[in-house]
What does this fold into?
Amino acid sequence: MSLKSYSRQRAIHVMLVYTGGCNGCDIEIVNAVLSPKIDIEQYKVFLTWNPREADVLVVTGPVTYHNKEPLLKIYNDIPDPKLVIAAGSCALMGGVYKNIYGDIPSEEIEGPVENIIPVDAKVPGCAVRPQDILAGLISVLPNLLNSD
It folds into this structure.
């Protein structure tokens, strides 16, 4: 058993990346999931801001033109194996920002997350519910833990 697989069996590090939008999903993830009511850290799931420590990348918001390259850099900096969760309507399909100018597509929105990087789980909602975030994370953990 490698050191990485040993560590992953004992703790998972999740990195949250905001790529545009209203921040509603970020508020739900940070305030609700890390709050004492749910307290995801009791299950050894920790939030990190360093891509080199991350196992799971949670992306919120539509991917804007200015955030496309930073998202790709962060994704590439996360060591393999890695998993990606697209959280919220904006991350899944652009949400209200998809067609902000009527019938004219917005040039500022590059599209949903899956158009930029591979997505392993999709969590719908506007804003996402804390229970759904946990369900999305739990659905991909076996893929991460069995990858080594």
Observations:
- DSSP finds five helices and seven strands in the chain.
- The beta strands are 12-18, 45-48, 56-60, 63-64, 83-87, 109-111, 121-123.
- The two ends are 8 Å apart (CA to CA).
